[in-house]
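Hello everyone,

My group is preparing for a crystallization screen and wants a predicted model to guide construct design. The compound we'll soak is adenosine-5'-triphosphate. Before spending weeks at the bench, it would help to have a computed complex in hand. I've included the protein sequence and the ligand's SMILES below. Output in structure-token form would be ideal because that's what our pipeline reads.
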Amino acid sequence: MKELGTMLELKKMTKMLGDKLVLRNITLSLEKGEILAVIGPNGAGKSTFFKCTVGLLQPTSGEIFLDGELVKKNSSQVKQRIGFLGHESFLYNNLSPLENLKFYGKLYKMKNLERKATELLKEVGLYLFRDMPIRSFSRGMMQRLAIARVLLPDPDILMLDEPHTGLDQEAVSLLNTIIKNKRDSGTSILIISHDFEQVHALADRVAVLRKGKIVSTRSLGEGVSLAEMKAWYEAEVKSS
Ligand SMILES: Nc1ncnc2c1ncn2[C@@H]1O[C@H](COP(=O)(O)OP(=O)(O)OP(=O)(O)O)[C@@H](O)[C@H]1O
Ligand SMILES: [Mg+2]
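Reply:
Good plan to model first. Here are the tokens for the complex, ready for your pipeline.
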């Protein structure tokens, strides 16, 4: 990993939902050209963390810095620079893959839209289906298109909540290749996942979220095995 500076910095972020403190003082940074994975048990607050960071939810307190600049409430700054893939696909069922991508490309006022959309559809393996309404698509095909949609404006940060869900082996390796290529060209990537194997294959660093708190982070250097990573996670989730 190259040392290029910090892309995203969260300082003491908290979130109340109802009367429950779901996120407690989250301080975490994402470096440029880094893949960071956030893992944790069901209900730990991962999706809430994700939504607060991408601007789908307003944090109750705390600050977010994007490339050194404080992100203001309802800022469009974040939306333009972060590409996020959550549980919703934000795709239109009556449109084809190509039409969906063109729809978003126009919103982003993209140049060379047709070429970029076509390239992406080839990359995610949907080119043959480019003109077919996606209504009849399988879950994995939808996920492939959702990934293409996220990549379309070439965001500086990719935030992916359980991106491997529903993907077959071929699509998993396609996605991992895409993620690694993006990282190598300087994109910062944050992945939320339960899939230890994929986290181990991809992440430069891993953070454990437990009961709304980041309880530990660790770099995954070359030497760290999958078994070692699992053992560390289990110890962190049990303790504190
Ligand atoms: N609207 C809400 N009101 C009150 N509590 C909520 C609300 N939404 C979520 N929560 C609570 O916040 C906590 C964190 O939920 P969240 O969805 O962020 O967890 P998660 O780590 O993504 O879990 P999973 O691994 O199952 O996806 C849970 O205890 C949940 O019950
Ligand atoms: Mg979740």
